[in-house]
Design brief:
208 residues, mainly alpha, Vanadium-containing Chloroperoxidase, domain 1, 9 helices, elongated
């Protein structure tokens, strides 16, 4: 029991130390703007827009898969969040002297901390692009995902381990969906019906 307690204490100490090193909100206006931008860019609504160029470039099945991946990632992330119930570092009485920015701190969050939803979504999309398209595109998206995770710690709303957990979850879900999309006939049939229906509506709109 002592060994388990010591390991837990060491983990918490590492998490807090890393958090303190990265939580610099409000110390530099340019960095604040960059981190807010990264955080906003990793919201589900912004990432979902990536399905549009995929669709218009003829990757209609992949556009559908991307939207499904984002939806599944959001649901899985929220389920884990409420199952674990981990408080955010900026929550009252959790950690003193947390640096936050009004409108982007705990006042803008409604759910628990673990895992980071922004990070899980960003890494899910990065893994998706890496699996289905050029590795350089996936690497670029992965770099963005890393900084998106850092932005959440910078803004004081997540522990570093929340970002790590989100990254692992996003990558795992992208791998699972890739397997499902390749092998599960029921999913393929459903996707074909939905993609076909949307294509017909789109083509009708072009004709009028």
């Amino acid at each position: 029991m002592r060994a388990i307690a010591a390991a837990a204490a060491a983990s918490l100490s590492w998490d807090e130390a890393a958090f303190r090193a990265l939580n610099l909100a409000g110390t530099d206006a340019a960095m604040d703007a960059l981190m807010i931008g990264l955080s906003l860019a990793s919201t589900a609504y912004v990432l979902a827009v990536l399905a549009v160029p995929l669709w218009w470039r003829g990757h209609r099945d992949k556009a559908f898969d991307l939207l499904v991946l984002l939806a599944v990632t959001m649901l899985a992330t929220e389920a884990i969040k409420f199952a674990t119930g981990r408080p955010r570092p900026c929550s009252p009485d959790v950690l003193p002297d947390v640096r936050t920015i009004a409108g982007f701190g705990c006042d803008a969050e409604f759910d628990p901390a673990f895992p980071s939803g922004h990070t899980s979504r960003a890494f899910a999309v990065a893994a998706f692009l890496g699996i289905h398209f050029r590795w350089r595109l996936g690497a670029t998206a992965a770099s963005f995902a890393v900084f998106a995770g850092v932005s959440r710690v910078y803004l004081g709303v997540h522990w570093p381990s929340d970002a790590v957990g989100g990254a692992l979850l996003g990558i795992a879900l992208a791998l699972v969906l890739a397997r499902v999309a390749r092998d599960l006939q029921g999913y393929k049939r459903l996707r074909a019906r939905i993609v076909g229906a949307v294509a017909r509506v789109t083509n009708r709109g072009r004709a009028t």
